[in-house]
Amino acid sequence: MLFYALRRLFLVSITLLVASIVVFAVLEIVPGDPARLMLGINATEDAVAALRLQMGLDKPLVTRYFSWIGGMLTGDFGRSYTYSVPVMELVRERMVVSLPLALLALILSTTIAIPVGIFSAARRGTSADAGVMAATQVGIAIPNFWFALLLVYLFAVTFRLVPAGGFPGWDAGLGPALASLVLPAIALALPQAAILSRVTRSALLDVMSEDYIRTARAKGLPANTVLWRHALRNALIPVLTILGLQFAFLLAGTIIIENVFYLPGLGRLVFQAITQRDLIVVESVVVLLVATVIVVNFLVDLAYGWADPRLRTR
Q: Transmembrane segments in this chain: where (predicted)?
């Protein structure tokens, strides 16, 4: 298991290096001068020159890359031009909203999807299975932002059970903070639960057709024992893959939902940075999100090795 983890860690390091080069290169090939783009077309030459000097744009390309990546390794993501504060400070402020939101949505999605997928697989071909598959198809088809607006109308406007938007901060107490995250978490979780439940059902049906499952049944083992002890663990590989991808999506892809609910998270920060042409923030946050996705996939690889020992030798 140790060799398996070290080999995956080496691949993660290479992937992070390549990803940082790609993000840096994409920013470099943006048409025009980044400093002028950030200041606008009416900026004076002196202001543009000062910003170029502040951003280090007067240095060679290779020097700028190593200076940038070295700063990120030490926690220095640069300084936001719009907010006039270090980018890392902005990330910390927004992460306390986005990370709990992503975790809450992932917990809701997993809690709903896996039992539903198991239920549907155990009743393959029945009306219950058909009903579940129809419901999940609807869940996949509905855009999460439309579902979010529907939730706001029902539970915030009509019944007034939870706030319609905004985030009071964790200082206001655990209850008010979680209440402001409930609707966005549900809006994010249900479409993901629909996908995950279909994957769980498909993976279980594939495993249930294997020879060792037929052997277990032939030995007279109860159906529940065959399902939970022999089939479910071997069906977890594709489920873990989807879980890893979903967490990365929930953390990095919440721009629309955070804007619908007016949440001060990472997604809204990226949106604001793009509209305000704050390229330093965009570059740093994108690299951070890419690194998060890669690290999550690394943890999923380790989970693969736990779920299926045969993968440790590959």
A: 9-30, 97-122, 134-156, 176-196, 235-257, 285-307
